[in-house]
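Lab notebook, page 48
Experiment: co-folding of the full assembly
Goal: obtain a model of how the components sit together before planning crosslinking
Operator: M.T.
Materials (sequences as entered):
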Amino acid sequence: MNKSMVKFAYAFSLALVMGGVTLVAVGRQPGTVDQGGKSRVVVLSAPENKASTPTMALGPDGSINLIWVEKLPVQAKIPAGETHTHRIYTNLYFARSTDGGRTFTKPVRVNSVEGSVWGFSTSRPKIVVDESGIIHVFFSGNRATATAAKDATDARYTRSTDGGRTFERERTLNTILKEDQSKIVGGGLSEAHCFGTMAVGPDGSVHTFWIDTRHMNAPGANGSIYGAVSWDRGKTFEPDRLISRDTACPCCQLDAAFSPRGTLFLSMRHVYPEGFRNSVVLRSDDGGKTFSAPVRLTSKKWMINGCPLKPAILATDGEKWVYAAWFTAAETPPGVYFTVSEDGGKTFAKPRAIHPGAKISDHPQLAVGPKGSVYVVWDAKVSGPRRAYLRISYDHGKTFGPIRALGSGETASMFPTVAVASDGTVFVAWQQDNKILFQALEPLIAKK
Amino acid sequence: MDREKKHLTGRCLVGWMIAFFIAIPAMVDGGGRTLSQAARASLPSHLLNPRSVELISAEELRQLLHHYRGRVILLNLWATWCVPCLKEFPDLSKLQDRYRDRGLTIIAVSVDEPDELETKVRPYVRDRAPTFSTYLRKENDLDAFVSVVDEGFAGILPTTYIIDRTGKIKKKLVGRKTYEELESLIVPLLR
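Observation: model returned without errors.
Model output:
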């Protein structure tokens, strides 16, 4: 081997090593990619799986807690003897950072039964970390019904009391039906208790809600909202109970948020007798025992007989401000809109478009920061592939700053999630190239 | 000279007739549809006459739409979990049966995940036996796939596009429509 060959081999090996270090997330350890931002992007998901649907929550200690779903290769084998459906093979993963997003723990599988999560991007699992540090997770799970030929989706809850190192075996919160509703549910499902959400009150009560098919047998019937509550931080749950019968658009996920003093807000897509389906907010002043009449986020009506798959995302600031971001085609042009209530959810301001000029904008998420700041992330198609974006208001949603693109725009980046630390550091995560990417942005608090 | 001319003309005529009869089967498929030779050359046969749900890429969808130029196309985007889509299927079958001979082609494309062909989409379609062609998107990037027909697809299902004989999208319909609504939009285009 001559000198030039040796040099070439050395350079080639070095390039391979450097490339591997810089670009590839190996196995289950989070890795990084350089996407040109000021802070590095961390890859959280396993490269061999198809990851989607990140959701993030901050702990009282400032920890960053992330969950996401990973779809296993179709040929993946489910352990013999397991009883869940074999049609979808999806797991829910959790990872945590206690150093501001520089490093993350090795991802932990949340669901106890391999492949048992019914997860996709428009039905995000929910994570909340309460004041005591307990990590609460609510998601939809697969179940094979007694007939074995049919599947069902269940509303499932689990929690971690050791900072995310382990999760309790998940519990099904919905009543299991005896009847086969596959003719009305579709998709091979015999019953469905899904598209749910969760909120944790200041007293530690855990409130879960989901859309239920159990009253859909009548022609033209809609989904119903059921819920289950824990009064002991998720240790035990009361039996599920009906919240709203035959009013919910069946495929638009719910969302819920508490005010600091315990007012509970629940969002849903309400099906009105006239045929329009609008996102609404219901308010409960008695810990979820009763709810107000629905308040529409816009006066304009969206006439649709279809599956929009568009939730309204809620966030609160104090007792006064309730924020909502959602996709609507009632407004022109269709896309992501934002509105704010300054009277605790009784009325909402005229909606404003979050990304004017985008060909399409969708999948918003919200976070509330210090000093009246509100952070909206979403994805939009402007030119080229869809991309995740961030926009900030420093005046309780009255006005918004410029639109800021997240990550690289080379391939589609979608379904962003956002959280904001007390110092204004913004944490974002999104899905791109079947991976979950995380980035900590510099503090973005307005200088006064 | 005249005789030679007549002879040549006759040979040409025979040649043209032979060419015509050879060309006819090449230009028309089993359903009596005029084929684009370019589309025929590049589209796999299983996509032209699918016996079951077939995976289709964005480029193949583009070619398929081109292939059916000259007919009125109803392109329906649906998914197995979409109840309104499920309810629309019988109406689409009825429309296809009634107006096939007048030039209607219905193409239904599932936007379920590409790896759910055998596990979800084929069993779902098998149970319902529609009389129109059904496909499942091959691309993971739904935007990239649907951009063949619509840059502004918002993921709302069902979404239906009515395409006239020249290949122009005449109507985008979001949400489930009744048989009568669809028929009222299609019939004028079939004239």
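Interpretation: The mean pLDDT of chain A is 88.
Next step: discuss with group before ordering constructs.
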